[in-house]
Specification:
Length: 224
């Protein structure tokens, strides 16, 4: 499924309230368990499952409990969940620049394993990705309701800026303020729902590609 087809399907999904299943060679597959993490043998380019396309307000996510893990809209108190506007932001942090949000297949932030950097267990979800993508540049950790929730920042190899971005430090040169924007949004986005602010772990420090080695270990459940 191409990115364009994928985003169109999610748009239709939001209207129908149904679930989006993935198929390969005519067979239904799980985007979490069956899709490979690595898109190439060099293990430097990753596959990404887009859950929330850019400029979307609907809280779409991989269903961990349904068979084949389709994408569907999250429900809160019996109502389809939307992403609240947090001034000065609107919707998911996509209006500021191209940003698809999703997950890395074959990964899992275990709630039973203490993160070696934050000292707090994971959130029981796949690793999150903010695509500004396919090649990891770095990331930052969010402490969300007492759980570690890493946000991997990556660049789509088809993006015209890809040749200018090789590590997390390069992002500010081509998109000044973008990473500060992302961190600020993740700190505040649950406040309209009556929840406290999240904490950006490690003093807001951005982790570079060296942290990628540890994310690889997250795939196997052996971060030590």
């Amino acid at each position: 499924m191409t990115a364009t087809t994928h985003e169109k399907a999610l748009s239709e999904l939001r209207k129908s309230g149904d679930r989006l299943f993935f198929q390969q060679n005519g067979q239904t597959i799980s985007p979490w368990h069956d899709m490979p993490l690595f898109a190439a043998r060099q293990m430097e380019t990753l596959n990404m499952v887009v859950e929330i396309p850019r400029k979307s307000h609907s809280k779409m996510e991989i269903s961990k409990d349904d068979q084949y893990n389709p994408i569907k809209q999250d429900v809160s108190k019996g109502e389809p969940r939307a992403i609240a506007d947090v001034l000065p932001f609107q919707g998911y942090p996509c209006n500021y620049g191209p940003c698809n949000y999703g997950a890395l297949p074959q990964t899992w932030e275990s709630p039973n394993i203490v993160d070696t950097k934050t000292g707090i267990p994971g959130d029981n979800d796949p690793l999150d990705v903010c695509e500004i993508g396919n090649q990891p540049l770095g990331g930052f950790a969010v402490l969300d309701e007492g759980e570690t929730d890493w946000k991997v920042v990556a660049i789509d190899l088809n993006d015209p800026l890809a040749s200018n971005l090789s590590d997390i430090q390069d992002v500010d040169a081509v998109r000044p303020g973008y990473l500060d924007f992302l961190k600020a949004w993740y700190k505040l986005y649950k406040v309209p729902d009556g929840k406290p602010e999240n904490t950006i772990a490690l003093g807001g420090r951005l982790e570079d590609q060296r942290c990628y080695v540890e994310w690889k270990k997250t795939r196997t459940g052996h971060p030590g």
